[in-house]
């Protein structure tokens, strides 16, 4: 199928796709870039990333389990949001702390 035989919609889609996704330039090389530094992450950065990932997973589990528990107890409105919010922060902080400790042990 050549370019002339395609429908107008396909041509418009191709134009939008190419103009949106294919015009980005490669970024310049950072000033402190050295060949031996590629892929090295400091231990503190690994701990922060571990905490962030753990906090995110804990938040999701806090929403799921805390939400079902609050609904089971019959909470609605402000009480529901307050209870689920406390559950989210508690579960996120706990799981985030354990993930950060695990990342620190692996350093």
Describe this entry's structure for a reader.
The protein has 107 residues and is mainly α. It has a domain at 42-107. Helices cover 68% and strands 0% of the residues. The protein has helices spanning 8-21, 43-72, 78-106. It is flat. The model has no long low-confidence stretch (mean pLDDT 82).
Structural key phrases:
single chain; 107 residues; mainly alpha; flat; transmembrane helix; Romo1/Mgr2; Reactive oxygen species modulator 1
**Class by alpha and beta content:** mainly alpha
Which of globular, elongated, flat, extended, rod-shaped describes the shape? flat
Q: What's the total count of β strands? A: 0
Cα separation of the termini: 55 Å
How many separate helices?
A: 3
Mean pLDDT over all positions? 82
Provide the gyration radius in Å.
24 Å
Q: What percent of residues adopt helix (DSSP H or I)?
A: 55-70%
Uncertain stretches: none
The largest pleated sheet is described as:
none
Strand content: under 5%
- Reading the helices and strands in chain order gives HHH
Quick structural gist:
The protein is mainly α. The protein has a domain at 42-107. It has helices at residues 8-21, 43-72, 78-106.
Please describe the topology of this protein.
Blueprint: H1 8-21, H2 43-72, H3 78-106
């Amino acid at each position: 199928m050549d370019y002339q035989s395609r429908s107008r919609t396909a041509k418009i889609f191709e134009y939008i796709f190419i103009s949106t996704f294919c015009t980005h330039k490669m970024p310049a090389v950072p000033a402190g870039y050295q060949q031996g530094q590629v892929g090295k992450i400091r231990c503190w950065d690994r701990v922060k990333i571990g905490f962030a990932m753990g906090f995110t997973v804990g938040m999701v589990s806090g929403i799921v389990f805390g939400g079902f528990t609050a609904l089971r107890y019959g909470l609605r409105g402000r009480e529901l949001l307050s209870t689920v919010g406390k559950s989210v922060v508690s579960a996120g902080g706990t799981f985030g702390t354990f993930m950060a400790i695990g990342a620190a042990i692996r350093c």
